[in-house]
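Chapter review: from sequence to fold.
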Amino acid sequence: MQTEPSLSLSNYDWREELNKERKKNDELNTFLKNQERNYQKLIGELKTHIQAELKKCSSLENSLQKVPYSMEQVIDLQSQLKQAELKQKALIEEFKQKTLDMESQHKEALSKTMTKELSAFKDYAINEITEKEKIIIEQKLIIDKSENTIQSLAQDVEYFQSLVITEKQKVKYEIEEYKEKIQELEDELLELRQKREDAKVFHTRSQDEALKNEKTDDENRKLKLFMENLQEELGLRNADLLNAEKKINQLKESRQELAVTIEKLENRIEQLIQEKDEIAKGLQSKEEAIQLLEEEMYSNAEGIDEKYKNDLEIVNTKCKRLEKKLREMEQAYEDQIEEKMGLIAMGQIRINDLNRKLVQMEKDKDVVYEKLQKALKEIQDFDMRLEESKKLNMKENEKYKEKLVEKITILKNEREELRMKINELQEMSFSRVSMVEPGGSLFDEFQQLPEGRYSRISLKAPGFDDTKRIEGLISQLAEKETTLRNLWTEKISIEANQKEVMMENKNLQQELSIAIKHSQNLSQELELAKWELDNLRSSDDSKLDKGKILVLESEKELLKAEISRLETELMLSKENWAELNNGLTRDLLESQTVTAQAKSELIRLKEEYENISVAKEKSIHTKKKSWFGRRN
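The token string follows.
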């Protein structure tokens, strides 16, 4: 029973060793992959370094394409180009040396690592094989010991079985003897009882019999004692029987346990035999795996050497291509330098033109600033005049409103009076009785009138003239109503036009303030551009590095773009300013024409109204005369 944990531990160790071997193989593969990645990273870094140098070359090309300020800068650029070419050559040589060093180092490292790994792997495999052989020998010894223990246990079981059988037979013999003794004692007891009964029957017969009875009593007492002793012995024998039965049961249980242990040991022996076969198979598979791993290691080493050789060949071809490209770039640089030397002079001419334009822009800026100030003054004067004219127009409009309201009330009153008079005249015309008799004429009626009256009426037809006057008055009233309505609508339109003019003036003032701010910002930007140009010109004399030259050239282009943008904004501001001035002048002329038209219309309406009022007064006077004449 003590051999089982050692066997399980040996199997566990065997599995752990297999896992360790697998882990070591994985570690070797990962180590090789990491080496490949490191070499690929180094190649990538070299490629990025080459790309950075190419970018620097392209930036130098761009800087050469851009126009420098002076010949000193051209000389500096040429020196920088030469330095860059020297650096490129040095970098190419360094790259070649690095590639050669990398190849040699890689080969040496591969050879060293492969030899170390193979020697270590061989030692490890030999140690593993020896350890596994030791384990197998130990397992064989354990199996032999277990077989010996099984045989000894079987012998012990047989011995115990024989002892149990002998003890059972002894107990059976003793039980039979005790049974015979008990039967004999029972027979004797029966006889004694019969004798006692006979003695009791014949007790009274004689003293002899009494003596016999005494003897029988003594014998009975002895028999009782003997019976008690026999009962005690029976109790002890029964206890011995019970103990024997318990021992028999214990022996049965131990026999069953021994049978179970025997079965377990037989199963364990079978398992150990199977494990032995499996271990033998595993050792064979391990030996085969070790051989395969050795073959794979040699093949992987050869494949890795071939891969690195191919990679190095590819890198060498790429380096050769890059060298060719660099040579072509150098030739192109030389050709471009010759072409750009001619462009430098043109660039100097353009710079001079730009300086002239800047001076002219400064002058134009001063002129524009003066014009802006003049325009602001004119706008302020115009605002003052507008406010004064607004105040005067408001006062005149209020006066005209009051006068118009008074005239409207007067005309309304007159209209009502005329309507009343017309109604009265109509009633009089309907209510007057004709004096003409049937069959007579108007002449007879005229003859009936007095002399003075007849002479006055004979000149005019009173009824016809009255109707004409009434119709004329009605038409005049209608015309006056229409004129009043027209005046009222014109008044409303004039007020609306005044409001629109006020709003337009406010909007124009806001636009003017925005334009002034924009012009101020433009002037500030021009000053900043001048300051930056002065700084650039002052910094041209000092020698600059590559990065500073590139930065200054980019700033120069930005300044050129800003100058062009400022020029366009100045032109747009000038155009906007001219448009604003034209719009303001147009609005002023329109407002002046509108006010003049309104004034002329008001004067005309006043005259018409006065004429109408005079004519109305005359007509009323004539009506009153005719009315009083008729009454008379």
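Two observations follow directly from the output. Confidence is low (pLDDT under 50) at residues 1-9, 432-438, 449-464, 540-545. The two ends are 172 Å apart (CA to CA).
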